[in-house]
Amino acid sequence: MIRRRTLDFLMTLRGTNPKKEYFEIKNLVNEEKLVKFQEECLRNLLIHAYKNVPFYTRIFDEIGIVKNSNIVNPAKFSKIPIQTKDIIRNNQESLISNDYRQRRWYRNSSGGSTGEPLNFIRDISYNKWCNATGKYFQNMIGIDVNTSQKNILLWGSDQDIFGGRIDIKEYVQNFLTHTKLLNCFKMDEKNMEKYIKTINLFKPGSILGYAGSLYELCQYAERKKYKLFTPKFVISAAETLRDDMRQKIEEVFGTKVFNFYGSREAAGLAGECRYGSMHIFNFNHLIEILDENNQPVKKNEEGKIVVTTLHNYSMPFIRYEIGDMGVLGDKICECGSSLPILKKITGRIVEHFIKENGERVPAEFFIHLFGVVCNRGNIKKFQVIQEEYKTIRILIVPVSDVREAECKDIEDKIKVVMGKDVKIIWEIVDDITKTKSGKYFYTKSLIKK
User: What are the residues facing 342 on neighbouring strands?
Assistant: First the structure.
């Protein structure tokens, strides 16, 4: 309790406490209030974008969605062109709000599974709404957000692999939230032994991790006949949670797995309730499911997921194609929530690499590694292909000459994870072949699993 109060105090002091936003969400008790709130948020966002974001000023003038600077015609929202990574990248400066310096803004970049890395900015207001959404999700599955509990985070940590020091803010955050970080970029047998021992001794109330890493840890524990401590909550995120993965994780941990869906560009999109429904957090984002002609699909039909972030005024994403496919549900959930249901999420392509000893390395390791280089502007696109256990081919679409030292640094880091004797082949290409659905793999393993 002392840690929780200290954290609340520090967040209030820094102006990042999402207490107000969480209170607003909790008061949206029925569908009518939810719809009205979303419509109001969207209207305010569109007016702000029209007045302050040059890219949208031009587009909104063309389609006539905003009149007299403050009157919005919602019927014309569907006329706003769909935004893609390429469009945002090519119009980045004009997509940033003219008043962003008046906000507490910060830089971020995409770390998703498909498409090119994307640089963008956010502000503290959006961050607070995302944190409030996270608290709402915790409350939805039964976690008491007003009390402290022990937490395990099975997540990726570049610093841990390469000997860097953890950021002091992250250290304090982990301490005050009673959280232990287990690095899922280092899932060899030695570390998995250590992780299992940590979980059993720490006895966490919740475990949050990459779907594939939770699955791999459970497979290892089962293979070694180790008993894992049963937390009250296991939350899967960052990767697609297949049915077979869910079954294994629930069997080994002895508790239900809750799925959480989001991305770097749009955090906190949907979360699974205790009755197994993925509820769309439409107080934080507006989600559309569209066909190839950008028309709404019917419920229970698959389409591409298009997102509008309702609270990031520094760089609004309006009708952004996130790169995933999904299906809207038509049922009313037994949990009683008025939030709409995302029946299925498909199309997210994240593959683990497999070492000869059976150890799996999450694709996010390579995504994070190359994301840093892409952010420097030297590489436009990349693809890492595991051709054999000890052969990795790296395709790059360069913007400028990539320094030899930079390539060597990447090779050295890959060898730390994949093995010193792995052969790395670099190949410069004009473009990277996309799938039929218009995506391309960041990572691709040709090893038969």
Answer: 328
Rounded CA-CA distance 269/280 in Å is 6
Residues 323 and 427 in one domain: no
- pLDDT per residue, tens digit, the chain (449 aa), is 677 777 676 777 777 888 999 999 999 989 999 999 999 999 999 999 999 999 999 999 999 999 888 899 999 999 999 999 889 989 999 999 999 999 999 888 775 444 456 889 999 999 999 999 999 999 999 998 777 789 999 987 655 545 555 566 676 777 777 899 998 888 888 999 999 999 999 999 999 998 888 988 998 999 999 999 999 999 998 777 878 789 999 999 999 999 999 888 888 999 999 999 999 999 999 999 999 899 999 888 888 999 999 999 999 999 999 878 889 988 788 898 999 999 988 655 446 788 888 787 877 788 778 866 666 667 777 889 999 999 999 998 887 777 788 889 899 999 999 999 999 999 999 888 765 434 467 788 888 65
> Could you tell me the residue range of the domain that residue 433 belongs to?
353-445
Domain stop point among 348, 366, 393: 348
Phi then psi dihedrals of residue 251, to 5 deg: -65, -45
**Residue 364 · residue 210 · CB < 8 Å:** yes
Global pTM value:
0.80
Characterize 226-244 residue by residue with b for buried, 16 or more Cβ atoms within 10 angstroms of its Cβ, and e for exposed.
Answer: bebbebebbbbbbbbbeee
Q: Let me know whether 296 and 388 are in one domain.
A: no
Q: Say whether both 168 and 55 belong to one domain.
A: yes
Domain endpoint, select from 348, 369, 388: 348
- Residue 327 vs residues 30, 84, 115, 287, 290: alpha-carbon distances, Å: 23, 20, 21, 11, 10
Q: Find all residues with CB under 8 Å of 256, minimum gap 6, and list them.
A: 234, 250, 274
Q: Do residues 268 and 364 both lie within one domain?
A: no
The enclosing domain of 359 has a CATH number of: 3.30.300
Element (H, E) at 287: strand 285-290
* Residue 206 sits in the same domain as residue 108: yes
- The answer to whether residues 340 and 427 belong to one domain is no
Taking a C-beta distance cutoff of 8 angstroms, is the pair 129, 311 a contact?
yes
**Domain shared by 80 and 169, yes or no:** yes
List C-alpha distances in Å: 447 to 123, 331, 372, 390: 42, 40, 27, 11
Task: Report the domain count for the chain.
Answer: 2
Residues 335 and 362 in one domain: no
424 SS3 class: strand
